[in-house]
Amino acid sequence: MKNYSPIPGVIISFSDSAWQQSLPDCEGLVLQVMEVAIPFIPFDLRGTELSVYLTDDEEIQGLNKDYRGKNKPTNVLSFPQGNVPKGPNGEVHPLGDIAMAYETCLREADHEGIPFKNHFIHLLIHGLLHLLGYDHENEEDAEKMETLEVQILQALHIPNPYLAEES
């Protein structure tokens, strides 16, 4: 049996170099977020893999239109690949894909008056939780998801973004 890392394998790809200019250690940041998030997640993610695709508004608008029927850019999209992981089974299996749009994320961070890096991290966590089956379709589910997001963000020393929205 293979000895799997508790952290999912992460494949990061870029179609917009603005991400690397704004967050030069983007790859390291994604791995750091995963390391901190794992203890908060009630699933065994050993032997899993996810991809993070950092793109622009134009491309994410196309994805949003094709997969959600919404012809507008959005900040983050998650594409789960099957069931929530149950533990290693001898093979690497994908959790899914997270796609993020640079311009929308930057606009939102500027509008909310928060550092771009903090907003990126929040949206990355948000996308990861969607891959694991969390959603915010009703108040109860939204509260569970937001509570978990805030706990992970606090562990990364990032203020609660939902408090900023309320004020």
From TrEMBL:
Q: Does the keyword Phosphoprotein apply?
A: no
Is-annotated flag, keyword Magnesium? no
Q: What is its main location?
A: cytoplasm
How is the cofactor bound, as the UniProt entry phrases it? Binds 1 zinc ion.
Task: Give the binding site residues for Zn(2+).
Answer: 126, 130, 136
SUPFAM superfamilies named in the record = Metalloproteases ('zincins'), catalytic domain
Spell out the subcellular localization from the entry.
Cytoplasm
Requisite cofactors: Zn(2+)
Specify the enzyme's EC class, one word: hydrolase
Enzyme nomenclature, EC number? 3.1.-.-
* Pfam families per the UniProt record, alphabetical: YbeY
The UniProt function text for this chain reads: Single strand-specific metallo-endoribonuclease involved in late-stage 70S ribosome quality control and in maturation of the 3' terminus of the 16S rRNA.
Assigned protein family: Belongs to the endoribonuclease YbeY family.
Q: What is this protein called?
A: Endoribonuclease YbeY
Query: What species is given as this protein's source?
Result: Candidatus Bealeia paramacronuclearis
Q: What's the gene?
A: ybeY
